[in-house]
Amino acid sequence: MKVTSAILVTMFAAAILIGCDKKEPAAPAPKDAPKTEAPKAGADAKTAAKPYPLDVCVVSGEKLGSMGKPFVFVHQGQEIKLCCSGCEDDFKKEPAKFLAKLAPKK
Description:
There is one protein chain. Strand 1 and strand 2 form a beta hairpin. The protein is elongated and about 60 Å long. It has a domain of 73 residues. The termini are far apart. The protein is built from four helices and two strands. Strands 1-2 form a two-stranded antiparallel ribbon. By secondary structure, it is α+β, with helices and mostly antiparallel strands. The relative contact order is 0.19. It is 31% helix and 9% strand.
């Protein structure tokens, strides 16, 4: 009985601690929300978008690559790199808040 309880507790703890890409689905974005666009195929996608200047996720602050391959997309001409696809929902809720972190500091 103790072994079964220990296994259940361990499984429960593991389920709680699984990566941030396991978030609950967010409500659909409002129709007036800014559009997030996927990068275009070919070399144009790299030259058209401003490069991402940070080595951390703009949403969570996690080091890029710490959770596997970064989730990359282009938003209004700016390349965005997130630690995981789960951070995309938070970015879409308040893109201006996160884009401000990419602005050059004076």
